[in-house]
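New here. Invent one.

***
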Amino acid sequence: MNFQKMETTTIHDANKTRWEAAADNWAENANSRGKWKKCHEDPAIVFIDKTLHYLKDVAGKRVAVLGSGDNEAVFALAGMGAKVTSVDISQRQLDHAAKRAMDLGLEIKFIQHDVIDLSSLEDEEFDMVYTGGHVSVWVADLQKYYSEASRILKSGGLFIIEEYHPFRRVWGVSETNLSVDYNYF
C-alpha cells in the first residue's frame, strides 16, 4: 500500500467512525428543523433557484446523491419524480433516512459507500449526480471523488456540485450588522 492510499484510507475510516457516532445527534437536529418533512413537496426549501432551474426536467431520471447526509436533497429530488440513489459513508445516517423516506412514502435506494469508492455502481448508471453541503471538506482525495462521480454519470449527464466552505456558518443573521456569532471549530 502506498503512502497516499494509506493516508486516504486512515482519514476516511476516521470520517466514517465520526459520522456513525454523530448520526443520532444529526438526526435529532434534522428533526428539530423539520425540513425533511416538507422538502419532498417544496424542493425550494433545499435548493436555490439556480439549482432548481437545472432540475426542472429531473422527473423519471436516475439521480445519485453523493454524501447524502440528512437526505433533504434526496427527498426533494424524489418528490420531483427522480429515481434517487442516496450514497453516504454512514450506515446510521442512511438508516435514519430510510425510516424517514418510508414515513413520507418515498421510494429511494440507499447505499453505504465512501464517495471515493463507488465500485458497486455501474459506469454511466445515472442521468445526474448531485453533491452538496460540505461533502468535499471530508474527502482526502478529491480527484478520486470527482472521478468516481464522473464515472457513474452517463455521457451528457448533469453533475451538480453545490459546495460551500463551513466557514460560512460563523456569521450571525442580520440585515444591518456583520458579526461572527458562532465558533468555526
In short: The mean pLDDT is 89. The two ends are 33 Å apart (CA to CA).
